[in-house]
Amino acid sequence: MTIDDFDYELPEELIAQTPLKVRDSSRLMVLDKMTGEVEHKHFSDIIDYLNEGDALVLNDTKVLPARLIGVKEETGAVIEVLLLKNLEKDNWECLVKPARRIKVGTIVSFGDGKLKARCIAEFDEGIRHFELLYEGILMEILEELGTMPLPPYIHEKLEDQGRYQTVYAKEVGSAAAPTAGLHFTEDLLQKIRDKGVSVCFVTLHVGLGTFRPVSVSNVEEHEMHSEFYSMKQDVADLLNQTKKNGGRIIAVGTTTTRTLETIQRDYGQFCECSGWTNIFIYPGFTFRGIDGLITNFHLPKSTLVMLVSALAGREAILNAYKIAVAEQYRFFSFGDAMFIK
Questions:
Q1: Euclidean distance between CA atoms 22 and 25, whole angstroms
Q2: For 214-231, how does the pLDDT look when each residue is reduced to its tens digit (9 = 90+)?
Q3: Which of 6, 203, 206, 240 is least surrounded, with the fewest CB atoms within 10 Å of its CB?
Q4: Is 219 helix (H, G, I), strand (E, B) or coil?
Q5: Residue 122's closest CA among 104, 107, 106?
Q6: pTM for this prediction
Q7: Apex CA 220: angle with CA 215 and CA 225, to 5°?
């Protein structure tokens, strides 16, 4: 398989630049993974496709306001730093632009020195490790100085920073939002619970891989970056019992899917655990954790298109995407949703 096998034509005007005012008013394409049949609905209709005894699993990671604009202390040059991963204490892995200006020992200052970052290691592809220097509480400083790290295909300013967080975001640590979850409202989640569907949470902190295209032609040669995940015991017990009772496990988003499939692969069942995963899901993969997936429409040639193709079949996915383009669905992070049942 090559990455060209996962390409499709997408008019630029279909890339959603801003979120809808009402989260669950987005459109919903329902794709039957057994038949390839497609239905057109609205996201609030998702409740009609969830059954009593099912479990809906969401990723409760919270996005850091991790995009910082500062100046190089020596020259005053403007530097953009994106915090990607907390390595230990105040040491962070970061994506830097322009990276050529940043060498070991360079200090970048933000907010007139309220926060400083000293480069302690250099790597390829714009990656640097920084030690953060500050007084007080880092998260409060980031709330003041940082902005949401929106994907590069979004060019409009985000007026409400909270619209790039899910309503259930809790565990701080992501460099990007688990965007399939952006469609849910508290009211919709309550209606789902009232129907007898269990709603539970895992955590996967979305990291560097989100910003990296596949750079090899042969799909099997691609290496995913590692991301931190965790599952608590009560969630593991619930999911194991759901499977035992014949209920379905519906994952919200590819990050939730990767978490559940990692745990099933490594432990053979759901259990309390945490660690790092670089699981890469593409056609030929055997799913052990999930039965259905709620997701958005993904970039051509991306690992995310490969993941949904592994679940529903490449031809069915590319056909569904072709229909979505013809029907003027909105694509990517702030776009419409798909339910693969």
A1: 6
A2: 889 999 999 898 999 999
A3: 240
A4: helix
A5: 104
A6: 0.92
A7: 60
SS3 175: coil
Tokens 């933000």 correspond to: 110
> Class of 67-145 per CATH?
mainly beta
Q: What are the sequence ranges of the domains in the chain?
A: 3-63+160-340, 67-145
SS3 for 13? helix
Which pairing describes strands 67-72 and 198-204: parallel, antiparallel, or unpaired? unpaired
> Per-residue b/e over 268-289, b at no fewer than 16 CB within 10 Å?
eebbebeeebebbbbbebebeb
The per-residue pLDDT for range 114-138, each reduced to its tens digit, is: 999 999 999 998 999 999 999 999 9
For domain 3-63+160-340, give the fold: QueA-like (3.40.1780)
One-letter identity of residue 145: L
Q: Which of 14, 8, 22 is nearest to 332 (CA)?
A: 14
Q: What is the pLDDT of residue 210?
A: 63
Residue 5's nearest CA partner among 160, 238, 228, 214 is 214
Nearest CA among 171, 233, 177 for reference residue 203? 171
CB atoms within 10 A of CB 215: 10
In the structure encoding, which two tokens stand for residue 104, read together?
Answer: 């070991």
Amino acid in position 136: G
